[in-house]
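Revision sheet: structure tokens.
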Amino acid sequence: MQNSSALFVLDKNEHSRQIIRSFTENLEFINEVKLYSDYKKGIEDLKQYSDPIVIVDITDDNSDLNGIVDNIKLITSKIIIISMDYSTNTIINALRLGVKEFLPKPVLQEDLVRILTMFASVSPEDEDSQSKIITVYSNKGGIGKTTIAINLAIELAKVTKDKVALVDLNLQLGDISTFLNLNPPFDVNYVIQRLIDKDDDIFIKGFEKYKDNSLYVLSDSSYIEQSGSITVQQISELFRKLKKVFSYIVIDMSSSIDPVSLKILDESDWIMFTTIVNIPAIRNAQRCLNLFRSRNYPDDKIKLVINRYMENDEIKIDDIENTLGEKVYWKVPNNYFTIMEAINKGVSISEINPESNIGSNFRDFAAKVSDDIIEQAVIQYRTKV
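Predicted:
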């Protein structure tokens, strides 16, 4: 069923605004079209409407574009960016703003109607986001996956300014709340049992906001016996809800292989498969990668991460790639003392020493993850149009 929506057009060109209006004249699900050359006035009027659709022209240089889109996103996620410049860089910049769709100018009626129809057919509760579930996993304990999950999530929140969830699904022996010195009022079991079917504002109250950035932490179960009650179906429900609320979801999980663990891995968009440079770890990694291949995961789902990497290791990266049949996606340097100081003080690595080799490494890691996700979205856009 199509929902009736107001359409706001923020475009400095009068002719362009009128053309867009004419394209929507026979669309029954557009109940009102509002045209603005003054973007600030348009955003102010937006506040009076429920779930509007907004078209924003970014052709003209606008130094406050980030602020404009951020303000619109507080009201609606149904945003279409249009521009005379439709180079790859422009599309990437638009997607970095968190928009749903991009159209080149002059806008074609067929393309516009297609997107408007899609938006009008989706309610706010059912809206499918472009968020990604990134699971940090190793099938061997002591590899450092919790440290990677925590610091990747924190740096993603800083780099993207989007809402990032850090979820502890190591259901029996989770450490995230300890590593970050948190005393959360709720845990993952409570959120799944009590808040999963609530609206977004209530759901997010089950998370603890980490300091002054956009990271929200969902801790492990307080009691081991409760963790066993979480089912495969509940994992699917949790992931669906997380994708509606957060742009990035970073999962830390146990090293075990059981039905719940397999469900987490199956439903993750990316798996940061983490290992270290020694023979036993690489042999374990080889067995796990064979399991992933048997489950027919897409080639770009597995991202091989080498932790505690040292340039003078006897085993070289080429040797690892040849043995495992996977390219190394990222290398995290070995910096034992900085990591242990961060863990013992219950803070992130960047709070201990942001200019250390490992501090800058995690910033670059988060930037690469964000850029690669955006590039993936651009490729999908290119194949769609």
